[in-house]
TrEMBL record:
PROSITE patterns per record: RIBUL_P_3_EPIMER_1, RIBUL_P_3_EPIMER_2
List of catalytic residues: 39, 177
Cited Pfam families: Ribul_P_3_epim
Gene that this sequence comes from: rpe
GO MF annotations, alphabetized: D-ribulose-phosphate 3-epimerase activity; metal ion binding
Keywords, ordered alphabetically: Carbohydrate metabolism, Cobalt, Isomerase, Manganese, Metal-binding, Zinc
Catalytic activity: D-ribulose 5-phosphate = D-xylulose 5-phosphate
Function: Catalyzes the reversible epimerization of D-ribulose 5-phosphate to D-xylulose 5-phosphate.
InterPro entries in UniProt: Aldolase_TIM, Ribul_P_3_epim, Ribul_P_3_epim-like, RibuloseP-bd_barrel
Name of the protein in its database record: Ribulose-phosphate 3-epimerase
Length: 230
């Protein structure tokens, strides 16, 4: 994985057909997705349940590019090796998931995976300041984690701006997760985000047997974000 700040679109398979993950991953990549975002939920840290390392391992052969695994689980540390062995390129943990986030980030990097730090909407940018040399990505949640299809929380745009200034020249991505569509993407791109996760706004209108809408949706988000940078 080489570092760059170009806009990357990361479809969240939370909005894909759960009976068809392998084909869905191939379909969105064929239609222009940069990364595949995998939302792991435990029914405890967030009020929803999705899937675990076995599912990540099963889809890995169907993902050509980056598999970006977002852990909405607590505790985290006991599961890091399993997600790394499943082939995750990036493993993101929440700062709110426990008292020892620094140890968690070290453990993630220790597996050889890239380490991400996610911040809930109620957590200020300041929570990331002392961790910026220990992460490869900061994920700004622009909805409360747990479900796809929620409304983008605008107060987070200023947080993105603060994080971008804090990060400076470090090779750290800023990822936006929740409510990203062609209307909200320009706000966060202009504030300094480079990875845009989108679930409902990518998968709406399409299917594995009719994947052209995925491409149109991805292009619309990318073009809106890039236009804000010109
Ligand atoms: C929310 C997840 C997101 C979600 C985004 O807990 O982390 O990745 O799938 O879905 P949309 O784009 O529909 O808001
Ligand atoms: Zn996510």
């Amino acid at each position: 994985m080489t570092f760059d700040r170009r806009i990357k679109i990361a479809p969240s398979i939370l909005s894909a057909d759960f009976a068809n993950f392998g084909q869905e991953c191939r379909a969105v990549e064929d239609q222009g997705a940069d990364w595949i975002h995998v939302d792991v939920m435990d029914g405890h840290f967030v009020p929803n349940l999705t899937f675990g390392p076995a599912m990540c391992k099963a889809i890995r052969p169907h993902v050509r590019g980056v598999m970006d695994v977002h852990l909405m689980i607590a505790p985290v540390d006991a599961y890091i090796d399993a997600f790394a062995e499943a082939g995750s390129d990036i493993i993101t943990a929440h700062v709110e998931a426990g008292p020892h986030i620094h140890r968690t980030l070290q453990a993630i990097r220790g597996t050889g995976a890239k380490a991400g730090l996610a911040l809930n909407p109620g957590t200020p940018a300041e929570a990331a300041r002392l961790l910026l040399d220990d992460v490869d990505l900061v994920c700004v949640m622009t909805v409360n984690p747990g479900f796809g299809g929620q409304k983008f929380i605008r107060s987070q745009v200023e947080k993105v701006r603060e994080l971008r200034a804090m990060i400076g020249d470090r090779p750290v991505h800023i990822e936006i997760d929740g409510g990203v569509d062609p209307a909200t993407a320009p706000l966060v791109a202009a504030a300094g985000a480079d990875v845009l996760v989108a679930g409902s706004a990518v998968f709406r209108g399409g299917s594995v047997s009719n994947s052209a809408p995925y491409g149109e949706n991805i292009r619309a988000i990318r073009e809106a974000a890039e236009a804000a940078l010109r």
